[in-house]
Amino acid sequence: MSFFNSQKLEQLEAKQADETDRSIVLVVDDEEHNRRVVSQILSPYYTVLEAVDGEDALAVIDQLADPAMLACIISDQRMPRLTGVELFQRLTPVLPRVLRIIVTGYLDINIIVDSINKAEIYKFIIKPFDRHDFLLTTRRAVEAYEMQRKLDRYHSDLEQEVQERTRQLLEKTEELDRVLNMLREHRAHHRERRAAEESWNRRYCAISDESGMPSYYEIGFESLVQSEWRSKNPTWPQAEIAAFLRDSENEFIGDKIVLAKRRIEGLWFIWARSKLPIDLLTRRELTVVEAMAEGLSHKEIAIRLDLSPATVRSHIQRIHEKLEVKTNAELIAKCLI
């Protein structure tokens, strides 16, 4: 048992279509009866225009206010002045996106080949045709055209967005250049004062691109990184810094230095400092040291960290060995420097 009548469903869909938003289908045929039949099939769904032959079709298209609304042209093949294939050949450079359908009562293989090769035909329909099959073919053609229009609009919007993002990036780059110039001037004006303020555990900043060659760095940054890689590269360790920037880890702990990085507006900000004794410890060991600095006993640390007292003592022993200290007081003092 069928719950839906297909003809009534088509009528309902046709009523729901907005007349102002309908796609246009152009029917070209020199026989009025054929044009009337096709228009009756399609008019509930589309705005249907008619032309009596190929030359008339060109005139109709030329008068359209918005040619982009023309989604499909359905043309008879054998007509005076212009055949269907000749019409479509004329239209290809003018309306390359419009879907083309040839309708003919003569099965000629040469026409089929010309339709496909020369006129870029979407479908080839032989008369007489089934009403529902004809409507379905036309629907598929219009849907394909509308999908292509949506893709074109999407690409256009995307291109505009890319242009706008590029403009914004250029503005931010110019702003960053001004900041860099200010930093360079500040460094030049305060070179002596900065040199006096340098200490063994101070952090120094550099700004670099992906290549590892900085566009700016503070005094002290260069000597720090060279102290780490002087044996491999006596000048600037560009390859080593570039490798660190490509690494997924945001921190590098070397033999003598510790590096940290952060990406901002397409540039890498890198901070370098001398390696501290505390850098030798694991996160668990650091947690134990912090608890010891608060004055907690072994048992209290074990309760806080959910460990056994024996495990806490093992951690402390390893910490002593790593930092080369003998007492807990020396340990805390060394970690808090």
TrEMBL record:
Q: What is an example of a Pfam family matching this protein?
A: GerE
Q: Where is the Response regulatory domain?
A: 24-142
Q: Which residues form the HTH luxR-type domain?
A: 274-337
| CDD domains the record matches | LuxR_C_like (cd06170)
Where, per the database record, does this protein carry 4-aspartylphosphate?
D76
Q: Which UniProt keywords apply?
A: DNA-binding, Phosphoprotein
What PROSITE patterns would the database entry show? HTH_LUXR_2, RESPONSE_REGULATORY
Listed SMART domains: HTH_LUXR (SM00421), REC (SM00448)
Q: Which GO terms describe its molecular function?
A: DNA binding
Q: Could you tell me which SUPFAM superfamilies the record lists for this protein?
A: C-terminal effector domain of the bipartite response regulators (SSF46894), CheY-like (SSF52172)
Q: Does the keyword Phosphoprotein apply?
A: yes
User: The organism sits in which domain of life?
Assistant: Bacteria
**Record PANTHER family:** TWO-COMPONENT RESPONSE REGULATOR
Query: What is the name of this protein?
Result: DNA-binding response regulator
According to its UniProt entry, this protein's organism is: Chitinimonas lacunae
